User: Fold this.
Amino acid sequence: MSQGSSVSKTASEFFPMTSDRASLPIGIFDSGVGGLTVLRSLREQLPQESFIYLGDTARLPYGTKSGASVVRYSLQAAQFLLGRGIKYLVIACNTASAVAVEALRQRFAPLPVLGVIEPGAVAGCAASLAGRIAVIATEGTVNGGAYQRAIAAVRPDARVVARACSLFVALAEEGWTTGEITERVAHRYLDDIFGVPEGPDTLVLGCTHFPVLLDTLRQVVGPAVAIVDSAHTTALQLRATLTAQGLLNRRGGTPTLQLLATDGPERFARVGPRFLGAAFSASAVELVDLSAAI
Amino acid sequence: MSQGSSVSKTASEFFPMTSDRASLPIGIFDSGVGGLTVLRSLREQLPQESFIYLGDTARLPYGTKSGASVVRYSLQAAQFLLGRGIKYLVIACNTASAVAVEALRQRFAPLPVLGVIEPGAVAGCAASLAGRIAVIATEGTVNGGAYQRAIAAVRPDARVVARACSLFVALAEEGWTTGEITERVAHRYLDDIFGVPEGPDTLVLGCTHFPVLLDTLRQVVGPAVAIVDSAHTTALQLRATLTAQGLLNRRGGTPTLQLLATDGPERFARVGPRFLGAAFSASAVELVDLSAAI
Assistant:
């Protein structure tokens, strides 16, 4: 197995410091299917790039796991992707972005690593006129406070309220993205935040599952609230960074897409297309084992 | 660590074939907090017994993982509990009961192993007058078909319909056990099953999370449907078995309860009491590492 030989190598051995680098795929990982919304945005913004996506479905969700566990899982995922050859690593998972981005940068330098939280926080600050920002995310992301810190770093005067919306994940995976139940759940989570004078003027979607609920969220918070999808803003930032660093793939040819999962390719292929916005079958999903990585 | 030394021992070395056996605790494992409903029923039925409960919160949920992964996790959990000294192993997780009970019995014989599916299926067959039985469970349990097979083994003429109700797990963990949202979700999952002529007369709760939703489920399916809680029926069967085998603890004294989790004792202690029906704090939850087991 390819990850077997990767264990003893260092990051720089994997990472060609040559012009070949630009033609390598971009590596992305998430705990499961949610990060496919990030992949979707990346493919829209970077149609000439090849991608390799790893969903750690054997250990999902990360949102309720401890920081130490999520860091360990993230290091394993990154090591595995590095073994396949990537030019950039995108953490398409808010929980892992919150706790593991520094550990990944340290361990795998000079591989550039981009999480979804910083771009989401920057975009949220940019979108907010009044500086009143709501963040919705999983329990782990909210309790970890990473969005709150990232927003404060950009805009210290911002007033941030964060709310864990665990049921949104289940609704998104069940495919109940619109309809009365989903609206009622959204009202229950959001009305006390938005239904007040001087409520937030911006809503940051701090979980990669949530973009598929966009229509319902728009309806519940109303037209006056800016909704920031961190998947989209991450893709914009990555495009800007690759452009600035001369790392855009200019070779032409058909870009490739590799989908990897650590468990259950069938479920991945059944639930995933809704998040990716494109069809794929279980036979297109490669089952991989991270236990040998690190 | 205690599991370190356990790896090289066989099951029979752990398992005292003497009268001391009856005073050992009963071991229980689940992927997380859901199995605490089984522990609750066991404590009600067996107030003189000591229990050691292991929630594999680092790898929850099992319901969406492959059978091979769940078997591996179950063997590790059982090995760990055996290392602590137990007289009986209860699999308080439907997914693990469905796929791992035979592997556990083979690997750890003579340790007796009881899952929740067989007692639930037997009780469902006993409760049903018409032989029309509905089973609600997680996706993994439903797709695996274990309840359908277990019911057919007891009552071959039974007509069984099984439905995956993934959102019930999220609702139970969120604490939204009653109210309009939960009722609507229940209607959406169940109305096409029960709202027909000659619908099921029995509903088997095939997920250990579901007993906390009992009031809502009762309201939605109506008073004429028998609801079978496999946690309760498992406890009844264990009491009968321990009695028959002379394994009831007759030493007297105060029975003990040990709670172990593989991740996040804080979350375990915040969500768990609703399932156990008794308060406990994070400091009462011991964090353990299964990675050294097997």
